[in-house]
Amino acid sequence: MTSTDAVEAYEQALAILSTTNVEKPWLEENRLKLEQALMLLDRAISLAPDFADAYYRRGLTDRKLFRTCRRNQLNDFNRAIALRADFAVAYEARANWLASECAHTQPMKMVCGHSKAIEDLSRAIELDGSASQYLSRGMAYCSQGEFLKGILDYSKTIDLDPHSWNAVSERCFAFLKLGDFSKCLADALILIELDPLDETGYVRAGQSLTELQQYEEAIKIYTAAIDSRPSKSSQSTLMFYRFRAKMHRLLGNEALASQDEALGQSK
Known about the structure:
This protein has 267 residues and is mainly α. Among the domains are: 1-85, Tetratricopeptide repeat domain (Serine Threonine Protein Phosphatase 5, Tetratricopeptide repeat); 86-178, Tetratricopeptide repeat domain (Serine Threonine Protein Phosphatase 5, Tetratricopeptide repeat, Alpha Horseshoe), CATH 1.25.40. It contains 14 helices and no strands. The mean pLDDT is 93.
């Protein structure tokens, strides 16, 4: 039975977190709020050592503060799962922790970390099956080179959340890695539709069309990319001029290629 005081401290922490931009913890105001919430979660746990939700939330909050002792975050997720075997979001949080650690480990440990993350995400999907869980598992599969499995999970994510730019982007990249340029192109066009200002869709659509030797269509994509840039002198705009120059050259139009190369030079 969780004590009233523990629940009160936990709810106060949640109230603070609800008013905090946790995606920008480097801002002083947000950092102070995160630290205040962390102290309240510490209090909740000290009053109720079996408070699974408090351990889970403390692990998440600690991650946002970029603490150097990251092992404490893992311990919190482990404790939350030990207290509640059906705690889907805690499995997801632990999996994301394991996947992020892989970026800082040796190759063999990295494979092990992704495998453990996949196990946790599979359990989370069994319990919950949210779009974010399928997306994370897809990324873990692709990190191990299992692109077909990753694509299946990205597709499931998109079924659950058709506007998931991240899922479409990751699936697009997986198709690119597999050399399936037609499907990569289809996803790249969806990316452009979802966010016309982001350069990713234009770049991958251009890559795919180049591989498919559809150079005139690639020119149309790069022209659309240039037209969509807020600044005509930005580095991305200059990049697209250079990409378009290559297409003109492949089509044997040296004059237009030279013109775009000149436009693609930094001022």
